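Students often ask why we bother encoding 3D structure as a string. The short answer is that it lets us treat folding as translation between two languages. Here is a chain of 174 residues written in the first language.
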Amino acid sequence: MKLNDIRDNSGARKERMRVGRGIGSGKGKTGGRGQKGQKSRSGVAIKGFEGGQMPLHMRLPKRGFNNPFGKDFAEVNIGMVQKFIDAKKLDAKGVLDHEALQAAGLARGGKDGVRLLGKGELTTKLSFKVAGASKGAIEAVEKAGGKVEVIPAAKPEAEKKAERTAANKAKKAK
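And here it is in the second language, the structure alphabet:
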């Protein structure tokens, strides 16, 4: 057998049907669309239409909303941090920030930084620099002899814009 002799099994790849190419093809004249009516024409958009009955997507109740100002934190439990330190995947010396936790594979995602949560036990003295931390997490870290520094989160774009507008108005008033 040679590489240039290799072929797919017969029937492994199905060729597309060319519609509207004469009656001999079996898909000529109406092109498999039946006769007349809206669906036989081009530009049909009746995906959710149910014959005048209220469509399913309108019958079902709508719940919840997406907060445009909500923060996206990578949540990290102190128990997992201890586990990674015990497994030598994370260095206990120095400050543990978003970059260090991300490099170890603990913090996934989190556009707005890391939030430290208090699930699990912490026995090592550690220093954290994070965007947020729960009370339990701060207590557990301080109990182990470490410290947690919470960095103030960046202001949302809407707040920045409001401050700029107020500053511009103040300048014009002078």
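Translate back mentally: The two ends are 88 Å apart (CA to CA). Keep this in mind for the problem set.
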